[in-house]
């Protein structure tokens, strides 16, 4: 097998290493079907170098489904020493905006990928596409049609019934050329004319029934301004954009399989400089999640969430704000793989990927969401210690943390009971518990308010229990977290549940908004944490011990921590 120019890099090399054998048959087992195709194309010499592209329409923010396409397209270029382009499919100016262009660029880079060369736009090719449209007309392969969209729909036929030729189909080329130019000059109203390819109105594939190539749209465009008032359709612009850029493998989701004959027809009938091929893979669907920009936009527009980057949104920007790491999203995309069929992936798998990543990497911190005051009656009021604990049990490279300790500490309200059975391994009157990284304490008394609520606990430290068991042999049953009263940081914690209560929020044609979880955000306004958290930077994830993984919010002016994910893993566990 001949390696491509530039050689294979890590992912492919790793696959080879894993199989411990670089012969085709062994390594092939680990390749997905697209990697397999690329491997064959390079080995047979059909392609010298591969070029892929990621082609988002800038009409919304990228979501987790796009991450799959990004990892696939950019990943192939990386693995096989090729290139991946970022090309905005900007053929529908009405719904597009430069805000989305900027957000998409940021998200691709945040995921760890870099496109080759400049950012590209389908609109870069509008002049060439127009010239090729004229070419098709001259070749007798396209015509200007005067049917309105409604009439054209009637002529198109159905899945079971063939279509009828448009009365304008045999119009002379000169006339179509003239009309197309006048369409471009803005002479006609929207919907009065279109340019259509002349293919086959009786085709079993509706996409081949004289598809529209150009429509009149009197719209300002974010890239081309007011230069154009006719815009190419996606089908016309896409494959030709691929050809112009030298894309070799044009990878898209399965719903475009029916468009492939049209993709090929256009490439075959135009004097394009290069012949790309389209390949389709199964799109990512996640349960309890909506992956449609249109629906996500509705959540934003109707104020159901706080913008595209709301931490509950399945957008890349939302995951980033919530504390997901690029590595965890890439890992998830690797876990789900790439196949030829659509399926629904359990969102628990994505949650597992981030939990696993943070468990290994995140520094630990102690926090209390609902503080209960504990007065340590035998610990002097004027004595303060600095205790030292590890940054994380899994990261020897992290610096130790320093925890101030004194006469009063706070614990979680849930971690104290006056009485409890043996299963409750926290603080109980007359019993002992260890304060993580500090002393064993024993509770003596609960102080209550007029309503009978416990507002304070009096306890004693057991001497000599810093890093040692009690000398009297009475060991504590459990370990709980705590925060010093005299020195700590205060913040708001935002705890998230899934945004949808239903596994398939969009199934059965129902309104997906009916499946919204009304309790998807819980705000804990008076949380406190160890003092080191005052310096937490945005993007740094922490494990708040015994609570979950958290990350400082990037937007709020006051200190806010978003819960990334809880500690309990439901993935692959019997429920
Ligand atoms: P949406 O339906 O959310 O608007 P889209 O397909 O219209 O998605 P594009 O901006 O056109 O969005 O998508 C850019 C690329 O990402 C396309 O190649 C598309 O096939 C791919 N893509 C979009 N959604 C998914 C998904 N759920 N899984 C995998 N790839 C996806
Ligand atoms: Mg699209």
How many distinct helices? 14
Regarding quaternary structure, what we see is single chain
Identify the bound ligands: adenosine-5'-triphosphate, magnesium ion
Query: Do you know the CATH topology of the domain at 365-484?
Result: Ribosomal Protein L25, Chain P
Which CATH architecture of the domain at 365-484? Beta Barrel
What global shape is seen? elongated
Structural description of this entry:
The protein is an alpha/beta fold and 575 residues long. Among the domains are: 109 residues, Alpha-Beta Complex (Glutamyl-tRNA Synthetase, domain 3), CATH 3.90.800; 120 residues, Ribosomal Protein L25, Chain P (Beta Barrel). The chain contains 14 helices and 29 strands. The strands form 8 sheets. Strands 12-27-28-29-25-26-13 form a 7-stranded mixed sheet. Strands 23-20-21-22-14-17-24 form a 7-stranded mixed sheet, with no helix packed on it. Strands 4-5-6-7 form a 4-stranded antiparallel sheet. β2, α5 and β3 form a beta-alpha-beta unit. α4 packs across α13, α9 crosses α10 and α13 packs across α14. The radius of gyration is 31 Å and the shape is elongated. Bound molecules: adenosine-5'-triphosphate and magnesium ion (MG). The site of adenosine-5'-triphosphate (ATP) has 15 residues, from α4 and β8.
In summary, what is this structure?
With 575 residues, this protein is an alpha/beta fold.
